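Reminder: ligand-aware prediction takes two inputs, not one.
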Amino acid sequence: MAGPASCWGARKIEHAAQDTQGRDGDPLIEPATPDAIARAARLLREGGLVAFPTETVYGLGADAAADAAVARLFAAKGRPHFNPLIAHVSDLHAAHRIAIVGALAETLAKRFWPGPLTLVLPRRADSPVSLLATAGLDSIAVRVPAHPVARALLAAFGGPIVAPSANRSGQVSPTTAAHVAEDFGTDIPLILDGGPTPHGLESTVVDLTGEDPAILRPGAIPREALEEWLGDLGAPRGGPIRSPGQLASHYAPRRPLRLEATDVHTHEALLAFGPGTPAGALRTLNLSPSGDLVEAASHLFAHLRALDHAPVRAIAVMPIPERGLGEAINDRLRRAAAPR
Ligand code: TXA
Ligand code: MG
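Here is what comes back for the chain with magnesium ion:
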């Protein structure tokens, strides 16, 4: 896995304009230099949207405290308003200003922050975060990202930033700046390019508001690592979104997915895992030829996007073991395969 530091060597991919002013809607992908980060912070202060890399996936950021900015973010993503956002903050101290951080949360924060763990905590009554961002719930999802670009942006902005994954609602999450541009085109003024994201899977969301801690979304921190601190966590529990099937279909490519494939049908592409892949696919991409789940997670979304662009009718996906990061990978694959 590439360390976050290596993400700084970003390339300018396209639309090589020099600044965000006066460019009617060109998607602007810029290497995440200190200068570009300062400009991004300015855009956020003005109520604008900025895409930026985190160690998990690219986020689409807005000023968490500004209702209008948050509304713009929901609109840009096409995200239902009942689905709350994660507030990104620079450290534990900043988390205390927006949420009630109990003893268990502190313990987890000290172990896993900065990093890909999102904690759902009681919202502070005087939390400055927009009620729209938390969908009117009395809880709030908080995370301290580890990626140097995300951290620099938080420092330059100086307040919480809400950031869902920078894809249109329901689509595959972006792990490169180019993926973000693919989804949003000219709709966002600045995409900070920090190279491919190291984990490639969203953060693990843990709910600490109930009687027992529960995983709401499997993610880049495997269950086993959390259970060392929390004991047995049981099956992942649905989040606040409980209406049947509402978000069952998610992370969805256009082509249908066929899971647990051990052979290849005509007109299929193959998303392979491990050695010994079946022959006959129109196109094959392997998540990890050596069967390494960390490597597989980092390639998942990019490979899904690439195969979705291939001239095929469907994508066959080989079985992925359910241990470690396999739980989160299989979660995303099942949602991608769910009927729309
Ligand atoms: O890795 C990540 O978490 C990325 C990067 C950009 O930080 N962000 C991300 O955000 O994946 P998003 O909006 O795509 O997913 C946030 C998840 C959703 O499943 C949402 O329902 C859940 O967190 N969530 C947010 N606030 C919540 C709350 N108060 N209670 C329960 N679940 C919540
Ligand atoms: Mg998302």
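Residues 293-308 form the longest helix (16 residues). The chain is about 30% helix and 15% strand. We will return to this case in the review session.
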